[in-house]
Amino acid sequence: MTEELAPPVAREQETKAFLGLPRPIFVLSAVSFLTDISSEMIYPLVPLFLTSSLGAPLAAVGLIEGVAESTASIVKTGSGWISDRLRVRKPLVVVGYGLSALAKPLMAAAYVWPAALFVRFLDRAGKGIRTAPRDALVADVTPEEIRGRAFGFHRAADTAGAVIGPLIGLGLLAALNERFRLVFLIAGIPALAGVVLLSVLRERKPREEQPKAEAARVRELGGGFYLFLAVSLIFALGNSSDAFLILRSKDLGLSTTEAVTAYVLYNTTYSLLSLPAGIASDRLGRRNVIGAGFLIFAFVYLGFAVVNGGMYVWPLFAVYGVYMALTDGVGRALVTDFVPPRDRATAIGIYTGVTGAMILVSSVLAGVLWDTIGASAPFYLGAVTAVAALAALVALLPRR
Length: 400
Prior knowledge:
The chain is mainly α and 400 residues long. It has a single domain (8-201, 221-396), classed as Up-down Bundle (Growth Hormone, Chain: A), CATH 1.20.1250. 76% of the residues lie in helices and 0% in strands. It has 16 helices and no strands. The chain has helices at 8-14, 23-42, 46-53, 58-86, 90-106, 113-140, 147-175, 180-186, 188-197, 223-236, 243-251, 256-284, 286-306, 313-338, 344-372, 377-396. The protein is globular.
């Protein structure tokens, strides 16, 4: 469903909802909220499960997270193209969320780390299938002047699940005497609820047919889009999996519970500031907001590299949430600003796919740097690449 296909009157009616946002935004946000509760119940526990229960080395942790996220990235690119080519969004969204719901309890059956790699692959494949069509749908039903607000609200709801999920996971882990596998089984319940909720999301048939050849013209997405993609790749080179932040917290002296709680603090900040960041990008320009996020990321990663005590982890994680709020939803909104409606899913798929694929490189590199040089090395790299990306952003992209 795209702007050019939706009836103008119906589209205008859709925008008359709470906070001035279309009603489909609230459905998609609720589904993301439930799915993230499920995902984040286990995500901060997975690196601990891999290293303590399965005996995986840190290089294997980096490989697992890198392959998992890169799988999502590759699938995102194809899914976005298919969505634009067939001019459908919802079926791909349902399939993607369904696969992720299935993967959560399967982690309980992993007894060697390659099996955990397969489960993470399946989970992230689901994420890859749904992301570009879902984000394109968010843009399709939202006027450009409030697009940052819409993406910000969706990111806020998604991340609110990331606040609640780890708390539930920690509570269950304590109540179940650190039985990781049982926690993984229970985590499938909210994800399944999210898939059921998608049944109320309606995707209208287009008013008129368009030749398929007009969709997904990758070479015509525009110079602005590819410049921003290049900047994002520079940044992604040092942006390894957040699993390394959790492991670094443990390395600095935090207990398992404290490390996961610090991660919850990060998600709390991220959730609370996502909507204000999106509104700010509508008013101040997306480049300015994203640039501020890159600078904050450099500060946080430098902090994780140089601090020598667990007490510093708490403020660093809190500030890390500010970076995410300023860049995640705003970056997606900026991508949709660059391209016509018919190519939105393709552009979002390429953007999230290619930058996410760099996580394979950055995560494996982070694991190798940690094992061969020291725990600070991956974070020095992240700080350097963030500053380089900021310089490229300012030099290559206009302010608005």
